[in-house]
Task: structure prediction
Amino acid sequence: MPKIEADTATGVESFDALENRKLVLAIKDAGIDILHRCGGNAKCTTCRVEIIEGDVEPMQELERERLAREDKLEPNTRLSCQIRVHNDLHIKVLRQASVTGLEPGTVPAE
Ligand code: FES
Result:
């Protein structure tokens, strides 16, 4: 089972993720209040994470096009709703409900 280490606004969380689970859902399962305002459709970018260490799937066209419209992205930024977990990862969660004051949004489909 892949292990995730996530830097959050309140510290570092470590948890196991189900193989092939969407990263945004694995983060949410761990009790981290990551935003996912468009429901996992690669439209809002609020589920963005920084990949600090570990291998993730290559970026697909939908994610690439959406991120290309953003200014000043943190390095190695990915949309966690567009990634499935297959390996151990160290990530940084970049948008949280408790920090932004926003509602998390519709839960992405499995
Ligand atoms: S881009 Fe909106 S939830 Fe991922």
Observations:
- The chain has a mean pLDDT of 97.
